[in-house]
Model the fold of this input.
Amino acid sequence: SVVLLDIFVSILSLNLSEPAYGADIAKLKYKLVAGEHGLIIRVKGFSHKLPLLLRLIIDHVSDFSFNPAVFEMIKEELKKNYFNMLIKPEVLAKDLHHVILEHGKCSVIDKYRRLMKGLSADSLLSFVKAFKSQLFVEGLAQGNLTC
Done:
């Protein structure tokens, strides 16, 4: 599920690149991160326009769809990223350090092995459906905020 979350976030970021272009021009920033405990959405910028950007991201999460060719492309890109992490001793050492210290952390080696065994587009669809069924929101707002 950690690898599928990485793929989900990569495809979601790709799907958002065109619709969120206007937000980028307006100096609004967003970041999607596949965290250890789920999807992390970070938005920052002028407060009066952030709700529109957040709504756009949430709409893309709720109506998630993808092209199988994009799925294969993202899968190959992740293989390269995982492999590049494995061949850098300092990155591998840091990852193994976190695996030892954090209970339940998935190592890059395990992610790479799982990706090499093969994943299908159907498994991603099943994962996203299960992910959205258990979704909840937790938030932190900093700065000038009006309700």
DSSP finds seven helices and two strands in the chain. The first helix runs from residue 2 to 17. The mean pLDDT is 87.
